[in-house]
């Protein structure tokens, strides 16, 4: 059997497509998100679905250990779970800022904590973090979201340097707009409407499967090759 792939945010959008893709390539997958039923409906072979909040380190570690007892050590972790709550800086609720920091930043660290030391001990393994073009440049109404994604990019690159000697790969994939329910959680209707108008101007976002293609490309390179960063967006997306 191929090696275990752990995917957070597997109940929707990009994460769900990643699970489909890596399963189709023959990998056992551990699918993590809060909504377990949606993941179970996919009915992927050699898969385990667990309802885990990515901010909960103990729950994350216990789900990973359970999957590893069934399928062997984690060879690839994809930290994909995320939340985008756009807002005006002076008006946005503190709670929305706080949730984005918890899920987008701490949520990447719980997964990393669950697998990284084992990968270093084995001298193999890969972690792919889903960043964003909003982790490389700023956009209006995105300030805290951008802050969380800049953090993902900084942590990935910094850790990559430090674990490189152990043959462990750390990769960041930075997509532009992708067609998923991500925007639906933003509470400000005016911001959502303007975002959707802008999306129409670029003929819509990328397909989630195109992000899965990028993850598969980076992963299937030999372990000695690290594709450090992939930035991908619709050609018509100027920023
Ligand atoms: P979706 O809203 O479709 O998916 C988000 C996923 O994150 C869901 O599976 C959700 O599962 C999970 N999630 C959210 N909060 C938690 C939590 N506390 N614990 C566990 N899981 C959680 O969005 P996308 O697929 O678009 O987003 C995936 C990643 O891609 C995010 O990190 C996002 O920032 C990034 N991205 C997306 C872009 C886009 O345009 N769509 C562009 C650039 C980056 P559940 O609700 O079941 O817990």
From TrEMBL:
Domain of life: Bacteria
Keyword list, A-Z: Oxidoreductase
InterPro entries per the UniProt record, alphabetical: NAD(P)-bd_dom_sf (IPR036291), Sc_DH/Rdtase_CS (IPR020904), SDR_fam (IPR002347)
Family statement drawn from the similarity comment of this UniProt entry: Belongs to the short-chain dehydrogenases/reductases (SDR) family.
Protein name: SDR family oxidoreductase
């Amino acid at each position: 059997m191929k090696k275990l792939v752990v995917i957070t945010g597997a109940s929707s959008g990009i994460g769900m497509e990643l699970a489909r893709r890596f399963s189709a390539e023959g990998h056992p997958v551990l699918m993590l998100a809060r909504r377990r039923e949606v993941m179970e409906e996919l009915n992927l072979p050699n898969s385990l679905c667990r309802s885990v909040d990515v901010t909960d380190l103990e729950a994350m570690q216990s789900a990973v250990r359970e999957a590893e007892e069934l399928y062997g050590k984690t060879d690839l972790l994809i930290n994909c779970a995320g939340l985008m709550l756009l807002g005006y800086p002076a008006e946005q609720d503190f709670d929305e800022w706080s949730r984005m920091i918890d899920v987008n930043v701490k949520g990447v660290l719980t997964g990393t904590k669950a697998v990284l030391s084992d990968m270093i001990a084995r001298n193999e393994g890969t972690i792919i973090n889903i960043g964003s073009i909003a982790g490389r440049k700023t956009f209006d109404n995105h300030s805290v979201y951008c802050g969380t994604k800049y953090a993902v990019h900084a942590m990935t690159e910094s850790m990559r340097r430090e674990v490189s000697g152990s043959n462990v790969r750390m990769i960041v994939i930075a997509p532009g707009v992708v067609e998923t329910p991500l925007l639906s959680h933003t509470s400000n209707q005016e911001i959502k409407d303007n975002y959707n108008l802008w999306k129409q101007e670029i003929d819509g976002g990328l397909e989630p499967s195109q992000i899965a293609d990028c993850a598969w490309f980076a992963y299937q390179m030999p372990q000695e090759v690290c594709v450090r960063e992939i930035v991908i967006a619709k050609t018509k997306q100027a920023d």
